[in-house]
Description:
Structural class of chain B: mainly alpha
Oligomer: heterodimer
Largest interface: A-B, 71 and 71 residues
Number of helices of chain A: 9
Mean pLDDT of chain B: 90
Strand content of chain A: 5-15%
Structural class of chain A: alpha+beta
Largest sheet of chain B: 2 strands, antiparallel
Number of strands of chain B: 2
Order of helices and strands of chain B: EHHHHHHHHHHHHHHHE
Radius of gyration of chain A: 26 Å
Order of helices and strands of chain A: HEHEEHEEHEEHHEHEHH
Strand order of the largest sheet of chain A: 8-1-9
Low-confidence stretches of chain B: 387-391
Amino acid sequence: MGISRRAALKGMLVAGAASAGVKPARAAVVPAPPADAVGLLYDTTLCIGCKACVVACRDANGLATDYGVATNTLYQAPVDLSPRAKTVIKLYAAADGMTRSYVKAQCMHCIDPACATACMLGSLQKREFGIVSYEPDLCVGCRYCEIGCPFGVPKFEWASAAPRIVKCELCRHRLAEGKEPACTEVCPRHAVIFGKRSDLLKEAKRRIAESPGRYIPKVYGETEGGGTQVLYLSHVPFEKLGLPELGDTPAPQLARSLQHGIYKGFVAPLALYGVLGVVMWRNRSAEAARANGEPR
Amino acid sequence: MTTRAVAVGGSVDTRATRALAGLLGLGGILILWRLIAGLGATTALNDGYPLGLWIAFDVVTGTAIACGGYAVAILVYILNKGRYHPLVRPALLTSALGYSLAGFSVVIDIGRWWNVWKVPVYFWHWNFNSALLEVALCIMAYVVVLWIELSPAFFERWQDSAILPLRRVSRWALPVLAKASIFIIALGLLLPTMHQSSLGTLMLLAGPRLHALWNTPLLPLLFLISCVSMGYAGVVFESALSSRAFGRKPETGMLASLAGAIVPLQVVWVVLRLGDLVWRGRLGLFVAGDGRAVMATLEFVLFLAPVVMLASPARRRDLGHLFRAAMVMIAAGALYRFDTYLVGFVPGAHWAYFPSVPELMITVGLVAGEVLAYIVIVRMFPILAGRQAVR
Lengths: 296, 391
């Protein structure tokens, strides 16, 4: 009996230890982008910071005006992504005042999105064209997507009693009408362009090859966090633009392989359940035998 | 075989219960306000810190303290220490109340609460990649299991009820529950093992935004181990306070010998946590001496303090001393959870979070409601062991 008791405790520990990932369940797998993946390519050297994209995005998505910091200051534009701004233009200025760059922020449309990994009922998931899209009927408003996203993209309508998650969905309603996203349509300098991800990646590499020295020789989003469908070319280090240094491993990989390692086929929980039941049953029979005055 | 549980009796209308009801009422009004005005108007939550007090305390810490039912059940049913049986029902009651509170808090916390029924029902939409889905389904199931485990206490009273249907149901349910108990209790052991570890896995998804002092694949194991100590400490807390409040003999002997099993767990936690930090070469982060390093250091102090406090068997038998050690144990696990969910979460320098007054008062109101429910239930139903303990 002592043995089976130990087995039950061991089972519980093994469940924990497996969860501890002492041995990582699987090697990192970098996923391939969906075949129909579309995206954006943004080039800091072309952007003049006119914010036409910010306004066009607001109109195309029926968002209320976001006045930014406060309405009594002269500056009246959203300062960061918010429930009313799916894209914003920010300015980076180095301490020396010489190096400057604009940067456009919006959803990166990760190839392996952490927000979709987080989402209980798949409200946020990659749908057509690899676009990470949102289905409010399946959202309970838990905001776990906001914990997961390494770019801090999903925003929550805090001011509403019936809040939704708000993020760029690459104007999927416009794509359905055969149009391109609002931000790329209005950009006067083609600093942000729309296309198939594979074409955009080729174009980005062509620009780097054509003008050596003009860019940091890397396309951000080609592999970062497992790759994103929005790509960046920049003349200043990417981390200065709020694009975090991520490895090539998809951000949700570790959490997911742990979760899968423990619950694969639900075998471990079922086995543990069985062992617990058997141990208790034996304990109980032994107790009944004792109660009947039989020797132990 | 063991002592029989009996209802404490006495009036449920006292100064204390009125005060608790008042706090609960205030919390209820604030909850209504939150539902009407939204989360932005009532909480300090924001897009940088989307999870706050209600998740870190009511759910993540609260369910760990409510693991008393889990901790005691491991002992009684798996390690076959039947003499601890009198501890089972009160522990189950605190667990059932604590988990119900957590479930209720989640409903208040989530923005689109009217969709929550879809989580267990829309199984064809289940995202098995989501640690949160596992936690949500497990906690929902466990709340049901806990109340079923506890239900004989209610049926034992109602089997002599003057109301015929109630009497019939009770008399039918009691033998059925007795036969099914193994399956139910085993489920009651499996589910906490699953979701208490997953509560650790949950924050791993934050990836680079979870500070290196807490970011480890050991999170699930560390959460699981510490929930057992916290659950035990919760039982000590409950036992010490209820014995004083109702003028009953406390189960000091049992609690003291239980401490002997719990103290090593604290040590295991410290060894794992420290070993992991050494293994990953992260000790240097302590030298930084910033707020986060201080908090992580404090975790070790709080986890080790009960080990020292309960080192001598003689001191373990002093209920007051045991009680203080249990409080430190709860503080240790609570700090570790707050650190992982809030302190160690790094959304960016321009974000800040400290719970708002309505957030705090809703939590206070719900805890008051939990204590009130405990008092009413132990006075009316056979939960606590009888005075004439036969041991």
